[in-house]
């Protein structure tokens, strides 16, 4: 079994413990095994084991598990930011005491830099200005509302944004209007304060970049919006009026003008196929009309 396969095997067990609240003794043993493995940058990037360990740290109440998780994350973070540098030979003319002082100062500077800088990953693989701007906007959408502590131990928003943009670009092979619309829809959904689960699932690795790149508006929607849309569809099917001019009567919507819940709605596909249909609503009480997206 390769190191990567062993890490993935441990990762699956840790995910199960985090999800089901299983015994923390098992988690501690797995973390100790993980600590002994020669994990490198390639394995960290491919498996995202850092996300798994950080999720376990947040969900655990065992001090040993939390402490060892923090230790692993810290060691990997230093590795990723390139802090494992070879020591430089000391100058024979310098005293040992002077060398010790300089070494302490350098260590302190490294620690301060670790606190300020997020985890960095391999540089961007494109120089196209449109693609670079798209990646910047996607990364900003992922960082919005998140602190550095929230992102600790996870792949950086910049890396995830790069992978997401790459997946979108690979589908269209250019940066035309379809590409831009796809990027805009991802940004809007990731920034939606009413749908935090989409961003959290993406940051934690539950949703892969290749999957988010092709998800429809319905798939990205919050649970509340999905339930509301399902009820709309059910009403439409029951009344057999979805495609009629009359529309479908519902009490799920309240008129902003007269505050009554006596409305009729119709749904029309006015935008691209990966966007939701536009819902036109008519208040049967006062005649007020509006759009519901």
Automatic annotation (TrEMBL):
GO molecular function, one term: DNA binding
Start and end residues of each TFIIS N-terminal domain: 5-83
Chief localization: nucleus
Compositional bias (Polar residues): 83-93
Domain TFIIS-type span(s) in chain numbering: 251-291
Cellular component, GO, one term: nucleus
All copies of domain TFIIS central, residue ranges: 130-248
Keywords linked to the UniProt accession: DNA-binding, Metal-binding, Nucleus, Phosphoprotein, Transcription, Transcription regulation, Zinc, Zinc-finger
Ranges for region Disordered: 83-129
Domain of life according to the entry: Eukaryota
Subcellular location: Nucleus
Function: Necessary for efficient RNA polymerase II transcription elongation past template-encoded arresting sites. The arresting sites in DNA have the property of trapping a certain fraction of elongating RNA polymerases that pass through, resulting in locked ternary complexes. Cleavage of the nascent transcript by S-II allows the resumption of elongation from the new 3'-terminus.
Similarity-based family: Belongs to the TFS-II family.
Protein name per UniProt: Transcription elongation factor
Lineage start: Eukaryota, Metazoa, Ecdysozoa, Arthropoda, Hexapoda
């Amino acid at each position: 079994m390769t190191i990567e396969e062993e890490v993935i095997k441990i990762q699956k067990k840790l995910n199960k413990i985090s999800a089901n609240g299983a015994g923390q003794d098992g988690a501690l043993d797995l973390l100790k095994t993980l600590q002994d493995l020669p994990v490198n940058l390639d394995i960290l990037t491919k498996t995202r084991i850092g996300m798994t360990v950080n999720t376990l740290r947040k969900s655990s109440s065992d001090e040993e598990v939390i402490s060892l998780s923090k230790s692993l994350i810290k060691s990997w973070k230093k590795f990723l930011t390139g802090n494992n540098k070879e020591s430089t030979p000391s100058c024979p003319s310098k005293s040992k005491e002077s060398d010790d002082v300089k070494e302490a100062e350098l260590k302190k500077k490294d620690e301060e830099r670790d606190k300020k800088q997020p985890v960095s990953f391999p540089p961007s693989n494109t120089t196209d200005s449109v693609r670079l701007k798209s990646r910047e906007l996607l990364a900003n959408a992922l960082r919005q509302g998140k602190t550095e502590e929230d992102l600790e131990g996870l792949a950086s928003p910049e890396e995830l944004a790069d992978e997401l943009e790459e997946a979108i670009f690979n589908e269209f092979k250019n940066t035309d209007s379809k590409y831009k619309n796809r990027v805009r829809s991802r940004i809007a959904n990731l920034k939606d304060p009413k749908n935090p689960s989409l961003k959290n699932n993406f940051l934690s690795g539950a949703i892969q970049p290749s999957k988010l790149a092709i998800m429809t508006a319905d798939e990205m929607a919050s649970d509340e919006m999905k339930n509301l849309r399902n009820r709309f569809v059910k009403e439409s099917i029951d009344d057999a009026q979805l495609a009629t001019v009359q529309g479908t009567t519902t009490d799920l919507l309240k008129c902003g003008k007269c505050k009554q819940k006596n409305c009729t709605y119709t749904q029309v596909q006015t935008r691209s196929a990966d966007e939701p249909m536009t819902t036109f609503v008519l208040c049967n009480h006062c005649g007020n009309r509006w759009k519901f997206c």
